[in-house]
Amino acid sequence: KFPVMGVRWRSSLTLGEKEQVNNKNGEDKQVVASYWGIKGQEVKKEDGTPWKWNCFRPWETYQADLTIDLKKHHVPTTFLDKLAYWTVKSLRFPTDVFFQRRYGCRAMMLETVAAVPGMVGGMLLHCKSLRRFEHSGGWIKTLLDEAENERMHLMTFMEVSQPRWYERALVFTVQGVFFNAYFLAYLASPKLAHRVVGYLEEEAIHSYTEFLKELDKGTIENVPAPAIAIDYWRLPADSTLRDVVMVVRADEAHHRDVN
């Protein structure tokens, strides 16, 4: 009845994703739907088992560098540095009040915001490259990779803590405000925008360190690591939530250094 909606639905499916449909005889069959309308190549793990994730592929997985310096801090010296630093510090207070010590939910909610700067910066640099007919020096891909990495943090913590209805509503509000504010800040001063992200990542390191303390004290149950995390970070099969928080914290330290 609604062919246009059908096309839009199928075009939104990931490459190689299967949709259950009924044929004329009422029998179920699976058809492959993708944005390009072609069947994707079957992907398998190194051990030959099927790869079950559509949001990332085996060649996008990696092992986090846990030896990275977690205590590195950029001391604010210029006016823009101080503006970025105190802006981030002011944002931490309401976050602490709202989430208290619910670090699992806190991580899930904040990752919905953390994935915004890389996408905004990558988008603006992409447009700048088009306007000026010049190369980006690799920064477009770097920033988009950062945004994707933060999104995978969210996909992981979704398996640990499910958001309540008012938290989902909060995402719409905060993301809408933050996206536009960061967009305008990047137009005004990319250096300021990146410095804000750098200080945000420093705060993220602190939050995940507190998360680890709660796990070690037993306040938060150290449940088995989600399957998506094991495959994404190439973790051992018996990894736990603590192992996941460790690699996520290392990722945040890397983003801090990049910005």
TrEMBL record:
Signal peptide: none annotated. It is a multi-pass membrane protein. One of its GO terms (molecular function) is ubiquinol:oxygen oxidoreductase activity. Its cofactor is Fe cation. It is an enzyme of class 1 (oxidoreductase). Gene3D superfamilies: Alternative oxidase (1.20.1260.140). It is found in: Mitochondrion inner membrane. GO terms for biological process: alternative respiration. InterPro entries: AOX, AOX_sf. GO terms for cellular component: mitochondrial inner membrane; respiratory chain complex. Pfam families: AOX. It catalyses: 2 a ubiquinol + O2 = 2 a ubiquinone + 2 H2O. Its EC number is 1.10.3.11. Keywords: Electron transport, Iron, Membrane, Metal-binding, Mitochondrion, Mitochondrion inner membrane, Oxidoreductase, Respiratory chain, Transit peptide, Transmembrane, Transmembrane helix, Transport. Coiled coil: none annotated. Belongs to the alternative oxidase family. Homodimer; disulfide-linked. This is Ubiquinol oxidase.
